[in-house]
Amino acid sequence: MIDYIELYTSNFNKFRLDGTERIKNQLIDYKNNYSSFYNAFNTILKENYVKGQDSFINKEEPYRGLYNLFQDRFRLFEAEHNLKIIELVILEKYNSLKISIDYTFDEFILELAKVEALKENNRLFHLYSTIYKLMYQVGVFDDFELVEYNMVEENVPLFKKYHALIYGVKSKSLSLLENNRQEEINFKIKSKFLKRFKESYYEFTGYYIDENKTSYDDFCKVFLNDIGTHKSEIHFHCDTKLASLLLNNLNEEIFDNLSQVNIAKSKLFKSQGGKPLSQSTLSRTKLNASHSDHDIVASTLQFLKQ
């Protein structure tokens, strides 16, 4: 009898490695052709997403239904045994189907592994994008990998290595001086998004921001004005991991200066509990964002780019 869990796992790992090498080579090509990092980054993410969506397990029944079952595995099974769903639920469901089958179960499992590998590579590429941006700036990709570090980005050895190559090590006196220049910080929205951003208040209050504590005027002042010129604040009603993911993506695509350092320094972004978001909290909680969180933020970015 075929061990379907092993079939899935071995091919998932193979597709992950192949995909990692492909993304690395794409970045090198984009760099050699003078593309900006964000163009390269967004194009690669979109290509992988489209590949996954075009798969028969996302488009054709009954395979889409079987895939939906697989995506529910962490709710139905203990985390360390989540893949048991393949043999205990999905295989049984597949065998019970009374319709014409175009793909064998082996073929379904191989495609499942391929699509899940694409999703995982995209998740990690997005999650640690700051590190890959530093690599891209240096133009050296020998250390490129797509792995879960389970730590704040700034503590990852690769981040420290490439950050030091670009920026060196700041002296304590310079850091103190920068911390005292709070009034000069502006998050610097990209001009092409300014009009749409001003129209997005209800998009943000729907998913992220507490409209009872953050008015439209507060929203605009915090994101668009120098932080020393007002006393407005942003109060989130969503959990911190979603808020962190949102702010990270806004910094990558909509703003030039909405960094974790500046957010923490401003003390203008408050969690559900009313505490200012710190740099460590932003970095740590971003790592725990779910696929659902990523979908919500992707929808907001699409709204802003319309």
Describe the structure.
There is one protein chain. This protein has 306 residues and is mainly α. The chain folds into two domains: 120 residues, no CATH class; 126 residues, no CATH class. A two-stranded parallel ribbon has the order 1-2. The N and C termini lie far apart (52 Å).
Task: Draw up the topology in text.
Elements: H1 4-32, H2 37-53, H3 56-59, H4 63-71, H5 73-76, H6 84-96, H7 105-127, H8 129-138, H9 157-167, H10 172-179, H11 194-198, H12 201-207, H13 216-224, E1 234-235, H14 240-253, H15 260-266, E2 269-270, H16 279-286, H17 291-305
Parallel strand pairs: 1-2
Helix pairs in contact: 1-2, 1-7, 2-7, 8-9, 14-16, 14-17, 15-16
Question: Could you write a compact summary of the structure shown?
Answer:
The chain is mostly helical. The chain contains 17 helices and two strands.
Whole-number total of structural domains: 2
- The unreliable regions are 171-183
Q: Write down the secondary-structure element order.
A: HHHHHHHHHHHHHEHHEHH
**Which band does the percent of strand residues land in?**
under 5%
- State the helix count: 17
The class by helix and strand makeup works out as mainly alpha
Quick one: overall form? globular
Mean pLDDT: 88
Strand order of the largest sheet: 1-2
Radius of gyration: 22 Å
How would a crystallographer describe the biggest sheet? 2 strands, parallel
How far do the termini sit from each other? 52 Å
How many strand segments?
A: 2
- Percent range of helical residues: 55-70%
